[in-house]
């Protein structure tokens, strides 16, 4: 248990489905992140939330829609995905002060069929 | 802009041998530096971090890293590798003394029996 919990751990969805990934932390952190990790590719930062406000969106397609209703929860809503979106999606959180680094969840393994 | 380079994509060592994983960064001031480990299908776990003081930092699982300002390096070491150390290792630098991290592309460690 890392302090950041992601659900579900595995998800298989069709290209026409709508699903959501959930991330939860009770570490008192005020920044939360979504990363995509594909096979043989570097970590790709998707979104950054600071105090529940989106502060970074790295050219992510609109079929990915993040939501941060409070500082403890982060969602990634998925719709009309493509097979190339299959990947490990990692959530992380951190304090807003520097020098602490991130705490990562265990990830959601997404397969789009 | 800051960047992190991990020049080795793969490294193979024999069990019981020593290990050094390389990390170079570009940053003008003294950076905050981190090493993370990721087992297959899992999230990233913090091994150790450096932000001031002694340039040799100790981490979990018997790892250590040394900050060398003159070489802009933060190499990770372990005196004797165990089979369970087989994983991917990521070096990261904190961006502009903010809370956001920049990750290297990772080094995959394989351990020979």
Write a structural description.
The complex is a heterodimer of chains A (113) and B (113). Chain A is mainly β and 113 residues long. Chain A contains no helices and 11 strands. The mean pLDDT of chain A is 92. Chain B is mostly beta strands. Helices cover 0% and strands 51% of the residues of chain B. Chain B is built from no helices and 12 strands. Chain B has strands at 3-5, 10-14, 19-21, 24-26, 33-38, 44-50, 56-58, 64-68, 73-78, 87-94, 101-103, 107-112. In chain B, strands 2, 5, 6, 10, 11 and 12 form a 6-stranded mixed beta sheet that branches. Chain B has a 4-stranded antiparallel beta sheet with strand order 3-9-8-7, with no helix packed on it. A two-stranded antiparallel ribbon of chain B has the order 1-4. Chain A binds chain B through residues 2, 4, 6, 31, 42-43, 48, 50, 56, 88, 90, 92, 94-107, 109, and chain B through 32, 34, 36, 41-46, 49, 51, 90, 92, 94, 97-101, 103-106.
């Amino acid at each position: 248990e890392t302090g950041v919990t992601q659900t579900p751990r595995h998800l298989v969805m069709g290209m026409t489905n709508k699903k959501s990934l959930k991330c939860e932390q009770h570490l008192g952190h005020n920044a939360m992140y979504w990363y995509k990790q594909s096979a043989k590719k570097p970590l790709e930062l998707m979104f950054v939330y600071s105090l529940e406000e989106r502060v970074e969106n790295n050219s992510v397609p609109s079929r990915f829609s993040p939501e941060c209703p409070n500082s403890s929860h982060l969602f990634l809503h998925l719709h009309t995905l493509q097979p190339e979106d299959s990947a490990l999606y990692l959530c992380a959180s951190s304090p807003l002060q520097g020098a602490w680094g991130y705490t990562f969840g265990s990830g959601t393994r997404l397969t789009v069929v | 802009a800051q960047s992190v380079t991990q020049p080795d994509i793969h490294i193979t060592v024999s069990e019981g041998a020593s290990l050094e994983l390389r990390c170079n960064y570009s940053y003008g001031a003294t950076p905050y530096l981190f090493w993370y480990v990721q087992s297959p299908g899992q999230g990233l776990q913090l091994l150790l971090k450096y932000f001031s003081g002694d340039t040799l930092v100790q981490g979990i699982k018997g790892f250590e890293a040394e900050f060398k300002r003159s070489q802009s390096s933060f190499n990770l070491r372990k005196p004797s590798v165990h089979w369970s150390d087989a994983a991917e290792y990521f070096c990261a630098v904190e961006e502009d003394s903010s809370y956001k991290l920049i990750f290297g592309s990772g080094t995959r460690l394989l351990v020979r029996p």
